[in-house]
Amino acid sequence: MSALSDENLDFLYETILLLQTKEEVEKYLSDLCTIPELKIISQRAVVAKMLDEKSNYQDIVEKTGASTATISRVNRSLQYGAGGYEIIFSRLACEDE
After folding, report:
1. Residues 6+ apart with CB under 8 A from 71
2. With the CA atoms of 4, 6, 30 and 45 taken in that order, what torsion angle do they form, in degrees rounded to the nearest 10?
3. Contact call for residues 74 and 47 (beta carbons, < 8 A)
4. Which H/E stretch holds residue 33?
5. What pLDDT, on a 0 to 100 scale, did the predictor assign at position 96?
6. Is the CB of residue 70 less than 8 Å from the CB of residue 47?
7. pLDDT score at 97
8. Full-prediction pTM beyond 0.85?
């Protein structure tokens, strides 16, 4: 477990669930995170999407600027993680239909 207590994580999760629009998410994350933190998080999300779409590492490096270590870490999360990426990708696919 991380250095954060379960109570802190639970509070974060609950606050995120209160957001209703993309604009609200943008405002909240802008207040909550630094610009470098947001860039790292967004980079990982794009890396995960590209891996899910079967892009190769070189294409991902070129498009995102992510290191191969970051790509490998995200790939492990896709394969052995909690399933969060899969939830998002399946919902995005439903929106595209």
Report:
1. 47, 51, 57, 60, 61
2. 90
3. yes
4. none
5. 82
6. yes
7. 77
8. yes
Using the structure block, give the residue that is written with the tokens 């239909």. 97
Strand, coil or helix: what is 20? coil
62: exposed, middle or buried (Cβ count in 10 Å: 0-12, 13-18, 19+): exposed
**Residue-wise over 72-82: b if at least 16 C-beta within 10 A, else e?**
eebbebbeeee
Contact 33, 50 (CB under 8 A): no
CA distance readout (Å), 72 to 49, 55, 63: 13, 13, 16
pLDDT tens digits in sequence order for the chain, 97 residues long? 455 568 999 999 999 999 999 999 999 999 999 999 999 999 999 999 999 999 999 999 999 999 999 999 999 999 999 999 999 999 999 988 7
End-to-end CA separation in angstroms for the chain:
38
